[in-house]
Design goal:
The protein has two helices and four strands, in the order E-H-E-E-H-E. By secondary structure, the chain is of the alpha+beta class. The chain is globular. Bound molecules: iron/sulfur cluster (SF4) (2 copies).
């Protein structure tokens, strides 16, 4: 398993595309994704523990709605 210290990317979840289906939560081995109440009845996925994410990108690959983009950690915070 990739150590979080060597993680090169983190998932960015687009709440406009996320349907709350939960597939990303199911495939995330370190269990750092979870569903949270969104607007109305719909749930939205979120990364609740970025430090535990390995950057494996399984969540992005599995998402049927293209709601997850992997963002290089070096780019996070840049505009
Ligand atoms: S797999 Fe995609 S659409 Fe489903 S909960 Fe995760 S981010 Fe949302
Ligand atoms: S990149 Fe991998 S470890 Fe990180 S949230 Fe997605 S499935 Fe989980």
């Amino acid at each position: 398993m990739t150590s979080p210290a060597k993680r090169k990317a983190l998932p960015r979840i687009d709440p406009a595309r996320c349907t709350g289906c939960g597939w990303c939560v199911a495939v995330c081995e370190p269990h750092v994704l979870s569903l949270h109440p969104g607007p109305g009845w719909q749930k939205k996925s979120g990364l609740h523990d970025a430090s535990g994410c390995t950057g494996c990108a399984l969540c992005a690959v599995r998402c049927p709605f293209d709601a997850i983009t992997m963002v290089r950690t070096a780019d996070i915070g840049r505009r």
